[in-house]
Amino acid sequence: MADDLFEGLPPPSSNIVVPQHHQPQPEPISVATDNDGNTESSVVPAPKSILKSALKQSSAIPPPKPILKSALKRPNPTEPDTQAAAPKKSLKFKTMTDASEAQVIDAMQKISSHIKNPSKFSKAAKLAVQLIQAGSVKAEVSDYFFAILEAAMSSSITCTDPSVRADYHCLFSAAQNAKEHLNKKQKNQLAAWTINAVVANDLYTDDSFVFSKAAGKIKEIISSLPVATEEEDAEEAKSLKDSTVIADEGGKTAATDNDNEGKEADPFGLDALIPNSTKKGEKLKAKNEAAVEIREDEEETKRFLKSQREALITCLEIAARRYKIPWCQTVIDILVKHASDNVSRFTASQRDAVGKLWASIREQQTRRKQGKSVNGKLDVNAFEWLQQKYANEKISIRHSVGASGDRRAQQWLG
User: Fold this and answer.
1) Angle at the Cα of 169 (from 164 to 174), degrees rounded to 5?
2) Under a CB-based contact definition with an 8 Å cutoff, are residues 348 and 237 in contact?
3) Distances, alpha carbon 271 to alpha carbons 96, 227, 290, in Å
4) Per-position b or e across 222-231, b if 16+ CB within 10 A of its CB
5) 32, 60, 88: which is the final residue of a domain?
6) What's the average pLDDT block by block, 10 residues per block, for the chain (414 residues)?
7) Total structural domains in the chain?
8) Phi, psi for residue 211 in degrees, rounded to 5
9) Whole-model pTM?
10) Domain that includes residue 2, residue range
């Protein structure tokens, strides 16, 4: 047997890739005859040069790229993308709870009992604002809500006190969104309270825009007032003498008089047995009810005007106390002058108060112009300073550039 022909060669590699243009040729077969006449066939190995060239060409071809692990995690493209097709669900939080009418009434009664206490006023006012924002104030519970506002204004602490000023402002500003559920009398009272709780507190601000807006609101309300009558002056003088007079005494007295008239006309109740007298009694009753209603409307209008005027006087006094601030002075000058021009819309004692305020403002104006302020400096605002500067300035129709009307600037320009 012949020796191993592949001895000394490296073992065949399974990674050798033979290019297509080098197809392996059939190796030559050699036939040998031994002494006995038998023939043996054997494969003749290819030369080493051919194997080396094949190895070089196989090494020149880049190995296949490895499979990425991320590709194995991708979804099958033939399957529909269920995540993209599914609708997105947004997370929502429930900000309010639907409460029954009994629960709302119970909450309002508790707030009314605690809001009178100055130490609990801030928390109670915030709870009332939350009820308004939640839409819990409706016509069915409007009387309980009005009781909260009435208790707040009857507190031992005033609505302009620095400790509760912001809470009063927030409460009565939010109450404007619920006033549509109140009756006429309650709306009028809320309007008068709003002047004290909102407009008056805006006069304490450090923002010139808010201050000017509040002053404009006061001027607007003053202009809407009717001229005070002699009857209102007499009622005011009477109320000053006797402070225990009830505001709605006139309506109650009128109703009592009407009841007495009816009792005197039919003391034994026999008119009901007579057909004609029944019709007359119904007409008389309807007439009396209409008269009582008209009287009550008149009394309500008087009470509303009285509350408005008192609130406006309070606002004017607050504004006058801030006259020492320079940027407030011009606005206060205009406001108090407007009140003085419309002083006939106030009652007798209120007219005296407005006159004193206007006299005080004019005196301080004179002191500022003369430089006799408290701090010893020339205390004038920007408007007055510019007014003084250009009061005696010469202005030429020939468009002169100089401050005194000369033409030095033209000469300098050539």
Assistant:
1) 130
2) yes
3) 59, 47, 22
4) beeeeebeee
5) 60
6) 62 55 52 54 52 55 55 51 49 53 90 90 92 90 92 88 92 92 91 94 93 94 91 81 54 50 52 59 73 82 90 93 90 93 91 92 82 54 66 62 50 46
7) 3
8) -65, -45
9) 0.58
10) 1-60
